[in-house]
Amino acid sequence: MNDPARPKTRLLKGYAVLVTAFLGPLSIAAFRQEEKTRFTEIDVERINIVEPDGRLRMVISNRPRSIGPIYQGKPFGYPGGSRPGIIFFNDEGTENGGLTFSGRRNPDGKFAASSGFSFDQFDQDQILYLQYVDDNGTRKMGLTVADRADANIHDLVAERDAIMRMPEESARAEALRKWQEPRNGVPLFAERVYVGRDPSKAAVIQLSDPGGRTRLRLAVDSSGDPSLEFLDETGEVILRLPEN
Predict the structure, then answer these.
(1) Does residue 28 fall inside a structural domain?
(2) Number of domains present in the structure of the chain
(3) Is the confidence at residue 19, as pLDDT, over 50?
(4) Distance between CA atoms of residues 77 and 80, nearest Å
(5) Under 8 Å between Cβ of 230 and 238
(6) 60 domain-assigned
(7) How much is the pLDDT for 36?
(8) Cα–Cα dist 84/47, whole Å
(9) CA 38, CA 33: separation in Å to the nearest integer?
(10) Would you say 194 and 144 are in contact if contact means Cβ atoms under 8 Å apart?
């Protein structure tokens, strides 16, 4: 007996084979496109570079979508929205440096600009950085090498925030003073080397002791005159060349 539905069945099977043959390569192509895509130009407000498990390794963003400090994958300190640029993260998902920049002219015509490229001590803040700071023409730019105490930055910020919530002003000021003291004899921050140009337009090299006190200063001032100064722990010049 002839089945009137059989021609329709054959037609449907043929259609299914045709669709599979056509869409199969497209599906493979789409999968491959997810692995690598090429763009001639792209506008984006933020890009997150992540590890396979989702941990951040780098964030590129504008100002509103910029990220705040991150410690082992969790925000702390202050919210984002103030650091346009690139922020780097270590293997544990903790911020460990970045490239940031800003600059604008105010309604009164004055301007302010800054940029910095920094590298952080492990579980701490920046200890090696290039920086440019400009306050309407009063400029400082240079390379800084610093020491920081081996104190966890997450714990330090938590201690400071707890102090700032203290209701009594005098107790808060005393607690903050103690919080700023060295840890095991090491200051929380001590500039050790600075090479750059200071706001007085002098080219300088400054070497400091472990306490951050400048002990040797080589400079060529804005007039082109060179000098070499040796300083004691109080900042007094004990020898200057040339003497006049």
Answers:
(1) yes
(2) 1
(3) no
(4) 10
(5) yes
(6) no
(7) 81
(8) 12
(9) 9
(10) yes
Residue 22 is predicted with a pLDDT of 52
Asked whether residue 151 is domain-assigned, the answer is no
48 and 80 Cβ atoms separated by less than 8 Å: no
**CA dist., res. 66 & res. 79, Å (int):** 9
Closest-CA residue to 115 (of 136, 94, 140)? 140
Contacts of 67 (CB under 8 A, 6+ apart): 56, 59, 61, 80, 83, 87
Domain-located, residue 20: yes
Phi and psi of 61, rounded to 5°? Answer: -155, 165
- Domain span including residue 10: 1-38
Chain position carrying tokens 């925030």? 161
Three-state secondary structure of the chain: CCCCCHHHHHHHHHHHHHHHHHHHHHHHHHHHHHHCCCCCCCCCCEEEEECCCCCEEEEEECCCCCCCCEECCEECCCCCCCCCEEEEECCCCCEEEEEEEEEEECCCCCEEEEEEEEEECCCCCEEEEEEEEEECCEEEEEEEEEECCCCCHHHHHHHHHHHHCCCCHHHHHHHHHHHCCCECCECCCEEEEEEEECCCCCEEEEEECCCCCEEEEEEECCCCCEEEEEECCCCCEEEEECCC
For 134-175, what is each residue's pLDDT tens digit? 999 999 999 999 999 999 999 999 999 999 999 999 999 999
pLDDT in tens, 47-88: 999 999 999 999 999 999 999 999 999 999 999 999 999 999
Q: How large is the average pLDDT for residues 189-213?
A: 97
Largest CA distance in the chain: 123
Token code pair at residue 222: 């804005």
